[in-house]
Each structure stands twice: as structure tokens, then as C-alpha cells.
Fold each of these.
Amino acid sequence: MSKIERKRIDLQPTLARVQTAVRNGEDLRRHWITVADVVGQEMMMRSFGLSPADIQTQASLEQTLLADQALLESMRGRVGMSHPSMIAQQEKVRLAREYLQRNQERAAESISRLQNEQLGPLLVEMVRQQLREAVEQEQSLRVQFQAAQADASRRTGQIARLTMLQREVKRLYDLSDALVSQIASLDLRQDGHDVRAKVTAPPVANHRPVSPRLAFVALVAIVSGLGIGFAAVYVLDVLDDRFRDIDDMQQQLGVPVLSLIRRLDVPETSGLEAIQLHVAPASTESEAFRTLRTALALADRELNRIVVTSAEPGDGKTTIIANLATCYAQSNKKTLLIDADLRRPGLTNLMQMRQQEGLSTVLRSNAHVADLCVALIQPTGIERLDVLPSGPRPANPAELLAGPRFLELIDWASTVYDQILIDSPPTLATSDSAVIGRLVDGTILVVQPEKNHRRAVIRAVEGLLSLRIPLLGLVVNHAKGEERGGYYGYGYGYGYEYNGGYGNDEDDYADDVESEVTTATPRDAHFHDTDPDEGGRPGRIVPRRAA
């Protein structure tokens, strides 16, 4: 720590003490010594009207007075009081005392006047002035120190570079000396004779051209052509992010296609008139849903609790599940439809049950689940088919579905109904389908090839399988009615840009009420292949093809 910094540190508390004393009206004379120590004796004397010469004269006179008094005491034992030298010495001592007494009185008067008039502000101003000077000196020294530090760093770098250059110069000198030594030691004579050169073979012309080299050019052309071809295939694959056909879809996804649904020609978009199997049960389009029901019935175990979901919003899962439920009801099975899409309840809107209590009421209530379900489940107008609407939209649908009351509801419904179908939100939009999928016997994924991106469907399937959710298979919606390779193919008529928003508009439920069905031929029936590595869980559903 430098002297200037110590001085500044000493001045700050001194200034605080003097200011406090002035505010409190204390006697400031006891602060003289403290202020004098930090601001200096010379400045204090000048402030009180005393010059350094006066102080020095007073101190010298006090020393002389002490010496004269000692001499006077020693003379009293040798001479009488009336002796001239004794009288002169006494007069000298008296005059010195009177002079010192006058100086003290003058100093006391000056100090008393300052105490009464301006001693406080004077002391404060002296300390402040010294503090300002100390701060300015400290800042100046800091700037000088930083400049000196930067200069020292620069000089250190220059010294290091100079040292490296000196080493390089020394290395070059050593190399030069070594080369000179080698040159000096060369002997251009061998066995006492001069070294001579001669032609060992005549020059031969090369009749093969150096350029172009046909073999090399052909190899480069083949490699470049293959590279460009692979690049073109990759670019086309990236730009056209769609499945080519059913085989391509099954190969890339590793999941079977249960049924092909083409466009449905129904007169309405809501109500029972929007259900194909109810409007025209004997039509060709309705047969596709019976094919789907048959594929599920041929599983190696009973599938009484099934959830239907899709990769993205608007794929037609609500229409698929409504027609599938109607198909089960027509086969004399008591069926329950549950609208578990609490964010955008398409099934509730399809059945025209908006503004009614439903699933969210059961999940948020503390009442008995069975009593609430009996009161809230509504008949659809189709024999043996009931529906539990979604109810008021909650703020936390995922947490409600993950709670114990939803599992209790499914267990109760399993004791009352033969078949339970659950409509859940899209897989890529929310995590609700993953929560529900762990509680049921299997999951069906609705895919619309004209609309879905291939990577989106792959991501949806991989997400379900990674969570060990039993994925029964795919239902291809909006399939075209062309016969290709023994099964119905599908084409693409428009592009699609997926908007990730979901559940923001309750009135957009019509996007999910689809209307296209294609029936599968008898050779498209499916069966389950149990994977022994999964501990008895249903494996992939493999298509059974005709020989």
C-alpha cells in the first residue's frame, strides 16, 4: 500500500469525525492534534495565523528559558540576591516568561475566536482539501502504474521475441559453419582421378500421352456419376418427404397397416349423419371398418381397451374411432367411446355434446367414479353405443390423465362394457397419448399420407415404441382407390405444411372429422405375431398375404 493510499484512508475517518463533531456542537479543540497529524503542522499554523518562524522562535525561547532557570538556581548558592549578575539573570528569566505568556494568550485568543466563529468549517475544509489532493494523487499514480505495467508487458514480449531471434541467429550461424565444414571436406577426386560423367542409356521417346489419361478420366467419370446420382437421390428424398407406397411405409416403420380408409361421402360433418357405418352400413366404404375390426379380432389376445391417436392434428382419427365404435356396436358388443382429447375435443363436437359435463368432470371431482360415470355417460342414438364426452376444458389435461382416477374409470368401464375405445390427442402435439397408451391393451395410429411428413410419422412411431406402448398398427386414411400390386394404393394431390399449434381453437374440430375410406381385400387380413423378447406382450401385426 502506497503512502498516498494510506493518507487517503486516514483522511476519510478524520473527516467523518470532524463533521460529526461540528454537527453535534462538540469542542473542536480536542480534534486539533488529530487534524494536525493528517494535514501537517505547517498548514495548521498558517490557518491559525502563526507562521513557522513564530513556532520555531517560541520553541527556541522555551529551551533558553529552561537553561536560564537552571543557571539562576545554581547562582543562588554562590552569590547574594543583590548581586548584579543575579539581578540580570532574574530579569532575563522574567522577560522570557512574559514573552511566552503573551504568545500563549495570543494563540488562545486566536483559537477561541476560531472556535466561536469558523474553527469547525476551517477544520472540515482543511481535511477535505487534503482528501481531494490525496485522491487526485492516487488516481494519477494509478494511471502511471497502469501505463508502466503495460509498457513492462510490452517490453517483456519484445525481450522474449529478441531472445528467440538471437537463438535463431545462433542456429543459422551453426548451420552455416557446418555447411562450410562439409564443403571444405568434399573430395572431387576418387582414387586419384577426377570424377567424370557418361551416358549409360540413350534417351527414349514416350509414345503414350501424358494427358489426357483415358483410364483415369473414365474412373473419375464413373465415380463422379455415382456420386451425383446418390446426391440427386438424397435431395429428392429430402424434398419429397412422403411414403411411396404401403410396402415402403411398413418397411420404414416396422409396423403393419391394419386397414386403408378412403374418402367417405357423408352428408353431414357432425351428428350421427357424419358416421358412415350408420348412414350406409352396406356400402363398400363401410367394409374397410369391418376389415379393421377383423384385424383387431385376430390378435393373439383380447383387445377390449384400445386408444386411437394420430401423428398430427387433422389426420381423421375422430372419424375413424367413431365408425370403428359403430362397427363394434353393430356386432352386438356394448361399446363405450371416451373423448380423452381434453384440449381439442373432436369426438365431443362430432356427437354434438359440447357444453356438457364429461371426462374432465370425473377426473377433477372427488366423488365416486362409478356414480359420476353413470350420470355423465350419454347414449348416442345407436344401439349398444354410449359416449363419455370430454367435458369442460381443464388447465392441466396431462396431469389429470396421469392421475389414478382415469385408470379407475377404465377399470370400471371394463366391467360394464365389452369394448372401450378412447380418442386421444395427436402424438406429436402432446404427451397425453403416451400417458393413455400405458393403460390400455393397444394403440392404433391414424396416418394420412397426403398430409403427413414421413419424418413426422417415423418420429411418432419411434416415440410410442421407445415408451414400450403396444402399437397394434396403422390405419391409412385418405387412400386413393387405385389397384396397385394387389392392394389399394394412394396418391398425393396437394402439399402440406404442418403447424405445430394444437388445442388453441375449440371450433377447429372439423379438421379431424375426416371422410375417406378404402376397403381392404381379403388377402389384407392381419394377425398378431407375439415377440417372445417382450415377455408376452403383443408384437408387430404382420400382414397375411395370399400366395
Amino acid sequence: MARQISGKKPKNLRYTLRTLLSYMGRHKFLLLIVAVLVTVSALCNLLGTYMIRPLVNGLAEGGLSHLIRATALTAGIYLTGALCSLGYTQTMVKAAQQILFDIWRDLFSHLQKLPLRFFDQSRHGDVMSYFTNDVDTIADALNNSFAMVIQSFIQVVGTLTLLFILNAPLTGVVAVCYVVMFLYIRFSARRSKAYYHRQQRSLGDLDGFIEEMTAGQKVVKVFNHEGASRTTFAEKNEALRRSGTGAQAYAATMIPAVVSISYINYAIVAVLGGFMAMKGLTDVGSLASYLVFVRQSAMPINQFTQQSNFLLAALAGAERVFEVMDLPPEVDEGTVELVPAQKKGSWKWRKPDGNSTPLRGAVRFEDVVFGYEADHPILKGISLYAEPGQKIAFVGSTGAGKTTITNLINRFYDVQGGRVTYDGIDVRDIKKDDLRRSLGIVLQDTHLFTGTIADNIRFGKLDATQEEVEKAAKIANADSFIRRLPQGYDTLVTADGANLSQGQRQLIAIARAAVADPPVLILDEATSSIDTRTEALVEQGMDQLMEGRTVFVIAHRLSTVRNADAILVLEHGQVVERGNHASLLEQKGEYYQLYHGMFELS
């Protein structure tokens, strides 16, 4: 799905700079040290060049002894500048890493607070691009440009000041050339900025496409989609090439233009200065120092233009990062909390007024209307109920709304009409963390994290003991295959469980839900990846897991829902039939057709 972050316009340059400066302000002491050291280093370079004047003039007046003293003083000035340069580069590295640490931390923390809709509408590769490509551009600018910009500014101001002191009339020519340089840099920077922003977006789009094609490589090969993939990649790569070329085309002309203008400036000043020296309007030492300053006057501007690529790319990357960080987090206005009850192992809902309700697991949908897009409803006035301890099954064709119902129970999305209640409490009044703590869910698409098998099971309850982990695995009938692995429960899981079969990954996901010991359990095609024999073994354990709990089951194999207390048949976002297995067969309606295979249930 195409990336859709926000309906807002991209943040402007002022906003991006203000936000980036706020992060830099958190480490202002280190940056102040950098600024001081850079200033001293720049002034030493300027003073060292100025020393040409007394060296030249003094050589004729004071002889060899004066030359030695002036040379020693000049050497000390340059040594001081070199030590300051070493100091600020090392300090800047430390400051830059701390700033990046803050940005990475805040970006990741904010992503955890965004609603599920954001991740449904964003490519994983594009999300990863925020942490890599975009933040890397900020890192490059901090490491390479911050100190250089300060140094360049001081050298420009200092050079113009000393040029004015040495020879005010000639400085007018230099000032005119400076104005021309800055006007051209401003022109190129404006043209480049738009291309750099487009380049970062194209790079994120390309990363997202590569991630999708890499993850779905089996599907690509099965359907001979390699050619079409190469074509799409070429199109996205071409878009990146065009934007990158546009950015560099303008930025690359800055340095040659500045150098050319500086050469013209130097030639004009040298000719005029020679005439002034011949007429006695200036001394030779001042002219020598002045010409070196003029020759060096383009250097800080060249340094700045060299850093402009880093700066423009960093602003484009920072704009994307801060745009995401500015998205509103998931709203949670719930006030009802889940707290332990007096009876060990039991829980209750505590309301703001101090009253409490026992956690029983009764769930009701009351005329619920919902659609992932406001103008395209998926559920159309759904009403259903599940009493504590009941096993409720949902069946129906693809797109009927089965998974959507479970998404509303745990508030991955909020209803647009009607309400969902949990033990008589509107789920919107329950704090999301507490609501989800009371729910266990096993999805069709399992996801295992890097770590041991025990760690993955413990994901359902982080403080679970090894005994509890093994008990949960036994309930899911995963214990036997885990113990046959080389390191048993300490076997390392990598690459989303690539070293395990799909069925084994599903069993671990079921064990993860079992260790959480929730009063309400949602099984979304939980046994879809398990063969019939294994499914029978799992269901024996699941019966123990489901005992005394409210369970919602979505299954494509009707054999898994025959013992449900109630089966709800969904079509086009509405409940068309409800009953147990036997009563629904007697009705000879939709369920009857599904059961007898008149069309395949998805």
C-alpha cells in the first residue's frame, strides 16, 4: 500500500530548523565548547595570515632576530589553532552521537504510540528509512557541517574586517565579489532543496519496495514476477536518479562558481594593489598579507558550499523524521483500570469513582458500525454477545468482517457507531494497556522475535518463570518438539523463526497466549498452519486453555468450530445466522452450504 503519513502539508524550513535546534539545545554545553574551540581555531588562522605583514616589514627593518621572533610567534599561533581543531572535532563527535541518540530514542518511542492505522498504511521499508537514510543525513550534517559553518562564518567576517583594516579601498572590490558569491549560493540552494526533499522520499519509496520484494521472494518466483519487479524497481530507481541528479546539478555548480569568482577577484585586487604600492599608497608587507587574505577569502565560502549538500540533505531528512514525530499519538481517554482482586489470580475493573466490577469476560456488540475508510463500512449494525466462558466462532467468506470484529474488541480501531462493552463497560472507557492485558490473541500471521524460544513464549508475560513457560508450551502441545531441538527452550530463533516450520511457529504463538493466562482469548485462524493431526493435538491443549474463558475463534476449517457454544455466520458485514453446529445445519442456510462444501470458506 502506498505510504500515507498525514493529510497535513510538509513542515516548513523554519519548523524543521527549530525542532533540530531544540535537540541540539539539550547538549548546549558540549556545543558551546565546540563553538569556542572553533572560534579560537578560526581566529588563529586569521592571525597567522596577518602575521605576514610584520614578518615582511620587519625583515627589512629588524633583520634576522626579528624574523626568528616573528616566526616563533606565528608557529605558536598555528599550533594553538591546530590543538583547538583537534579538540573541537573530538567534542563534536561526542555531541553529535548524543543528539542522534535522542532523535532515535524519541522517534522509536513515538512510533510505539502511533495507532495501528499508521503501520497498516506505511511500508516497513519506508518506516526503516526514517531510522537509517533520514537520520544518517542528520548525522552527516552534525559531524561535518556544524563546526565548519561556524568556522566559515568567523573566517568570512574576520577576513573582511582585516581586509578593511589593511586596505579599505580595495576591500570594496572584495565585498562586491562576496555579494555575487552569496547571491549565486542562495539561488542554487533554493533549487537544490526541493530536489533533496524529493530524493529522500524517493529513497524511502525504493527501500519500501526492496523490503517487500525481498520478504515476498518466494511469491515473486512462483508467479514469475521477476521481470515485472525489475521494471518497477527500474522506475523507482529512475525517480531517485532524477531527483538526486537535480539536487547535485545545482549544488555541484556552487564550488566552481565561487572559485571562478574568487580568481577574478584576486586578479583585479592584485593589479590594483600593485598600482597602489607603486604610488606609495600602501606598504609591501600590507599588500602581501592582503593578497593572501584575498586568496583565502574564497576558502570559507568553498567550505560552506561543500557542506551545503550535507545541510540540504539533512534538512530534507529531518523534515521527514520530524513530520512523523509530529503525528498525533494513539488517543486513549480510558479511565477504567484493571487491578488485582482479593481472590488470588482474579482481577477486577476499577472505575474513577472507586467502584469496581469483577473481570468476567462478557463481551457485547451493540449495533456496531465500522469501516477502515469512513465512506466504506465493513460492519453494518453488528449486534452480538459472548457470555463469560462461552466459545464464539465466526465463519464467513473473505471480507465478511470476521477479523475486523476482533480488532474492535482490543481497540486496534474504535467503532464509528454503536459500542462494544466488556463486562458492561464501554471499551473506550477502559485504558488500552489494561484492556489488552486482559486479552490474549493468536494471529494467523505469526511473528517471532530474535531470541530464544523461551523468550518468545515469555513475550506474553515478561516475568513468567521457566516453569510457567514450559507449562504453557505443554498446553499448546509445543513442549515435545521444543525438547527435541538442539538447545531445547534455549534454542535461538532468528529471521522471524526461519529455522522452524510454520506449524512450529504457530504452536509457539499459541503458547505465548497461554502463558499470559487471559480471561478472553482471540484465535484468528490460529491453527491454519498446522496439519490435521497436529491440530487435533493442539485442540486437546486448547480445550484446557479455553476452559473458563471467553473465546472468539475465526477458522477456515469448520471442524475447529463444531464444538463452539455459538457460531455466527457473517456476510457483507452483517450476522446472517447464529446458533450451534447442529441447529445451523438444520436451518440449511449459509452455514449448511459452507459445511457441505458448496463453496470454499476463506
